[in-house]
Each structure stands twice: as structure tokens, then as C-alpha cells.
Amino acid sequence: MERIFIGVAWPYANGSLHLGTLAGCLLPGDIFGRYHRMKGNAVLMVSGSDEHGTPITLTAEKEGVEPKEIVDRYHEEHKKNLEELGIHFENFTRTSNEFHKNVVKDFFLRLYDKGYIYPEKMKAFYCENCARFLPDRYVEGICPYCKGKARGDQCEECGKTLEPEEILQPKCKICGGKPTLKETEHLFFKLSAFENKLMEWLKNKHYWRDNVLNFTLNLLKAGLKDRAITRDIEWGVEVPLEGYENKRIYVWFDAVIGYLSASKEWAEKKGMPDEWKKWWMEEAKHYYFLAKDNIPFHTIIWPAMLMAHGGLNLPYDVPANEYLTMSGEQFSKSKGIGIWIPNMLKKFEADVIRYYLSINMPEKHDTDWQWEDFVAKNNNELVAIYGNFIHRVITFASKNFGVVPPYTKGDDLDARTIEEIKNNFEEVGKAIEKCYFKEGIKRIMRMAQIGNQYMNRVEPWKLLKDDEERCKSVIHICLKIVKFLAVASAPYMPKTADKIWKMLGYNDSIHNRKWDEAYEELEENELQKPVPLFNKLNLDDIVEEPFSKLDLRVAKVINVENHPNADKLYVMELDVGELGKRRIVAGIKPWYEKGELIGKKIVLLANLKSAKIRGVLSNGMLLAADDGGKAVLLIANGKEGSRVYIEGIEGKPVKEMEYEEFRKIKMAAKGGKVEYKGKFLRDETGEIKIDGVVKDGSIIR
Ligand SMILES: [Zn+2]
Ligand SMILES: [Zn+2]
């Protein structure tokens, strides 16, 4: 027996889980964990909601609520989704609980006492407008290395961590203003002291994925800088030192310690408070599952922190995944791009999602989520090969024999098929152990294909009359393949595996069985009636017309005022009929006088996520044609509050729409009207007009 620790990167509690997180960390971790539990190894798999940091406080500020409200909401949602997805943790906890905070403080003090944490003055961004320091994500700018978009302390594109003074064209995320650098005192972790130790530690990590090892070595060769571990923020773990009451421990420092605190908490909950030591202080292999943007935290920073602490196990492997993209764009909660897990679970069986992400896992390079491919793999692989084979076998066997028939009369083809089962089974195991999950699931699917071919060749339905003994024998072989599929699929598609297991006449859960049982002889079980494992999907039912998500309404302008903090903005009061009065901020001041706006009926995007624009909350957005930088309003005629739509597109407005999502819906001017996919935007009285002359093709925004 081996001891396996599995740390899965902590999902942020500032929004729903998306497929990127599932493909990048949660699913590979779960497959690995389930496999090792079945192998009889002692697995401790932990993670939790990462509830501190500026993404949380920014979301809270946007919504006008306390950070706690945000994290409570999403932690509960994450837990529920994980359960539905069949992602099993020994402990899935959260960083805002007291237990975690205390472990972090102890860890911090130990490093402080050993001289690895020291105070130093530093320059940090300060926004005069907002009268506050702007910690990491409150600042956006351009990465000096790759010219990509930098979010405070890290570049989104190349993954480099950045010092404040390095960021080009910094902007305050709250007010859009230009922040200045101001001196403040923070505590630093002496990361630079670990360069040689880390290099030494990495010497025998030749089994790591190339991308992970090379990325890490390059960062080390470039030299490590000490890093600030406190922030000017109120939400987070308190600094356990005097004089730092207004600062909190920086989220990255607190979140990685979560691996340790979650282990300790698990032991505590089990009533064996020292049990965690078996994984952290005795021999155990530590694996960490995460997506590539998280590599430096797990291959440099966390190992250095562990070295500084002393006496705790370092990572054994960090099989980080590349990105899952959506039509080429990276999934990201903060950018509002993604396919949200709660929506996916409403539409699809968890195992179908798990299958597609396993066979399309971004292990060596980015992979793309494509709906056509998702539907094709479901229909052509899960339904037509895998599900079909199992269904054929179980139906035939249960109808004709009722129980697993004995194997008495074989031939060469049988011998070769049994050899295939053995080989493929070994290969699946090896692939999972090396974290090549895609390879493993491909082997499983190949075995289902071999099963179908075998059945087609031996034609048991013909043998039934002529040679019952032989018929029983070939069905026995087929059932062996079914058993293989159940066991080998258990880490990948846990619910499906359990269904197959029940059909094979076992009463217990397959997840309590051992991996090597796939080799063992079949028992003379009573077979159960087959249940369909997968259903065909239809692409048209899945792909939603993005336009249908919009809630466009006729709105009458009833009042217009200058924005208190911005030259080009108006604050407008609108009458939106059944939706009541709405206040929005609009950038049309350079082109419209207040007087000419009053009484106009315009088109309002009513379900755009509310946002503070220069300090004023805007509940929606008016639509205008953008004619080379000039804004020209769309003019409606219908009753206030009535819908604006495209004929033939059913309106299914979402509750809240992100601006990024809206931007992808390409409406354009055509002959003074608004066109979308060959049809005109209209309200109850006719087509929507543009308030002036604009070029055809001017986009609507
Ligand atoms: Zn960059
Ligand atoms: Zn500001």
C-alpha cells in the first residue's frame, strides 16, 4: 500500500464553476483519486473554496454586498456541483473558516520566527480618486514581457508574476483612473533564499511533464525575488503580528497552505487529530492537479514555503494541464467566458461531460470545447459503441441464460480477446498512474470496440440453436469485456460504472471493489435487466441562439443629468413600463444634448449585469450604432417596457448578462435599421430605426 496525497487547486468562490476548472484540475484529480482508492492505496484528496483575495472583494463591490455573502453562495454551489459531478474529496473545505485561518497563522509565525518573513517598504498602487491602495487585481494593465493583459500581480497570457512597477499603462479597476505608486510597508517571504534548494530538488523530477518542468526551470534560472505576502485589504486572514491590523495575508500565501489545513481538518473531523501526519510527515507521494496558470505557485512558491517550514512532504508530481478553450478563447470566470457547470448539469449527465473532458483533456496542449464534437463523441462513441455493446450483451445474456453462463468451449479468437482485455486493462492502469488520462479512456473505448467486433464475428444469436455450449462460452467472454468496462471506467465515469456493475448482478457499489477484480473470474451472478446508459444528443437542441438571452426593452427617457465624476457620461432616468424606472450611465454626452433626449424612446439592454461606472450604479445599457466612434441612438416606437426582438428567435432572457457575452452578438446597421443574421430588430410597432445617418455595417453596442 502506498500513501497518496492529492491536492486539487482551489476554485475561487466568486462565481460558478466552469468547464475549464473541471478539465484542468477537478476531473484529473478525481480520476486519479478513484483509481488509487481502488488500487487499495490510502488516498487523502483535499481542496476547497478559495474565498479570499481581490476577485471576491471586487465581485462583492460590484454587487454591493459583503464578501461573505458571495463566498457563502458559491461555496454551497460548488459543493453541490461537485457532488453531482461525482468528484469525491476526503475533504472539500473553505479558506474562510477559523480552522484554516489558524493553520495559516501558525505556518506564518513559524516562518517569521525562522527569519523567512521580514518587513519592507514597497511601492504599491494607490488611487487618488478612490482614496485607497489597490491590491493586485484592482489594477489592470499590460504585461511588459508579452504585451498581453496583466491583472495586477500576474500576466494572464504568459503567466509571469509581476511587480507593480513593471506593469505598463496601469488602470484602477474601480474608477478607471490612473493610479500612482505610493510607499507602504508589507511583509515579505524570502523566496530568493530557496533558489538553490529548489534547483537541487528538481534534479530528479525528470518524470514531470515537460511543460511543467521547463516552465519551472526557466523561472528559477531567471532568478527568484522575495514576494510580498500581505496586502492592504480588509478581507482575508489577519496578520498575527502587531502593527499590521489593517493588512491581511495575501491570498496566494493563504490558499496554498489550504492543502495542509484541509488535511489537518480532515483528521480532526475523523476524530484522529494526528492522522494527517501520515501523509505529510511520513512516506507519501504528493500530487497536485491544476491548470498551467497555477504552476509557479505549486512548483516554486509552495515547495519553498514547505522547505522554509521544514518537516513536511514536498510535491512528488505536479501534472498541470494546459487550457481548455471555448472556440479558441480561454475559460475565465473573471472575463465572464465559460460554460458554467450548473447549466451543464441541468442539460447533461455528469458522466457524458466527464467522458468528453477526459478524451479531450488538455494534457499536452490546449484543447477546444466544441459542441459538434461533444455531440459526435456522445452519439458515435458513448451511445453507438460503448453503450450499444453493453446493451447487446446484457440483453442477450439475461434473456437467454438469466445468469452469467460458464466458459467451457473456446477457440483462438477467445484467447486473443482475453489477451486484449488483459493488455488494455494494464495499459489503462499505467496511463492513469502516469496521469495520461486521455490515453486511459481511449483504451477503454477501444476495448468496447473490440467487444462489438468480437460479437459480430462469433454471432452468438446463431450459435444459440446450433451449439448452446459454445454460445454460452462466447457470451461469457463478452461479459468479461463488460466487467472490464465497468471496472476500468469507474474512475472516469463513476455513475455509469456503477450501473453496469448492477447489471452484472452485483449488489454492492463498484467503488468499494478493487481495481484488480477486472482480472478475476466471473461469478455465476444473476444478471439484471439492462438500463440505457446514454442517450443520443441533437446539436440543435443544445446550441442556444445567443440573441435569445438578451432582454431588450423599449425605454422612455424621463430625465438626464451630468455624471458627477465624468465629462462624457450622462446619468439617465428611464421609464421601462413593467420593469419600472431604471437609472443607467451612458456615454452619449458628446453627441446628444440633454433636452433632445427627454421623451425619446430608446432600446435598453435590461438584463446587463449592473455595474458601477465611475461611482454611479448603472442598471442596464442603451443601444446605439457606433459609426466610427460616434454614437447614434436606436429609436423605438412601442410601449414603454415592451419587448424588442428578432422575428423567429425565441426570447429566453438570462437573468444577468455579462458585457463580454453581449459583445459577441453582432448586430449591425443596415439601411438605417438594425440587422442581425439577416433579420431586422423590431418592436411591436415595426422595425427599430437608427436616429440619424450611419454607414451600413456600423456595429451596435
Ligand atoms: Zn505576459
Ligand atoms: Zn480608482
Kindly describe this structure:
It is a single chain. By secondary structure, the chain is of the alpha+beta class. It is built from 20 helices and 33 strands. The chain has 3 domains: 1-114 and 249-365, HUPs (Rossmann fold, 3-Layer(aba) Sandwich), CATH 3.40.50.620; 370-539, Isoleucyl-tRNA Synthetase, Domain 1 (Orthogonal Bundle); 546-700, Nucleic acid-binding proteins (OB fold (Dihydrolipoamide Acetyltransferase, E2P), Beta Barrel). β30 (679-683) and β31 (686-687) form a beta hairpin. α12 runs antiparallel to α16 (468-489), α13 packs parallel to α16 and α16 runs antiparallel to α17. The protein is flat, with a radius of gyration of 29 Å.
Give the tags:
single chain, 701 residues, alpha+beta, Rossmann fold, Isoleucyl-tRNA Synthetase, Domain 1, OB fold (Dihydrolipoamide Acetyltransferase, E2P), 3 domains, five-stranded antiparallel beta sheet, 20 helices, 38% helix, 20% strand, flat, binds zinc ion
